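Q: I'm building a small set of examples for a reading group on sequence design. Run inverse folding on the following structure and report the sequence directly after it, with nothing in between.
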């Protein structure tokens, strides 16, 4: 299972705005969209997820649902992303289709090890720097924190960095064996940034396709 290197964490002040932003991100070439809504009920998220997957399907963009794994199964999303407070990946795995991916949030080396024991497909590690939305997610890691964890972890499982990351951070972050990034603000403010992120991550789908057919 290949996990894209750039994840867009969809955001917006209303369901309509979230869907518009997903459309813009897909149009701009993002390969994976993560959909979650803080404090939304499962029923409300399902309604938006059904609309979101219509958009992502057109662009063949992957859609990952945050937290609500039953929604992910019902709409046949590409996978689920689990925060530390969500159900355990081991339980979630039993409910999903075998082809659906599971990503898990981590802030420490112990978190990462726990996720690896639960056989997740990728780890989202952060926060890289503090933002308004991640202030309660544990210590800010920065490049030093990433290096300290990846040096010990040595895993083939992709580790995705998150937390206030901008295009200016990517080159330094990739030196720490972090293989990709999850971005919300920097993309929502400027969807053209997706092209820059893809170039920096060398994740552009056209390049990958070219290599496949040679």
């Amino acid at each position: 299972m290949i996990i894209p290197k750039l994840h867009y964490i969809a955001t917006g002040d209303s369901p309509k705005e979230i869907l518009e932003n997903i459309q813009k991100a897909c149009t701009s070439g993002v390969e994976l969209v993560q959909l979650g809504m803080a404090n939304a009920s499962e029923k409300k998220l399902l309604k938006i997820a059904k609309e979101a997957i219509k958009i992502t399907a057109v662009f063949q963009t992957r859609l990952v649902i945050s937290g609500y794994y039953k929604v992910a199964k019902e709409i046949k999303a590409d996978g689920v992303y689990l925060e530390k407070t969500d159900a355990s990946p081991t339980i979630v795995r039993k409910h999903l289709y075998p082809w659906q991916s599971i990503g898990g949030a981590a802030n420490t080396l112990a978190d990462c090890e726990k996720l690896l024991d639960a056989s997740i497909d990728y780890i989202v590690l952060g926060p890289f720097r503090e933002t308004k939305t991640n202030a309660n997610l544990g210590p800010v890691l920065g490049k030093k924190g990433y290096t300290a964890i990846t040096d010990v972890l040595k895993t083939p499982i992709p580790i995705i960095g998150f937390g206030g990351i901008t295009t200016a951070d990517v080159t330094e972050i990739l030196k720490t064996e972090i293989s990709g990034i999850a971005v919300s603000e920097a993309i929502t403010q400027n969807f053209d940034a997706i092209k820059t992120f893809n170039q920096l991550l060398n994740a552009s789908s056209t390049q990958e396709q070219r290599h496949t057919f040679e």
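The chain has a mean pLDDT of 92.
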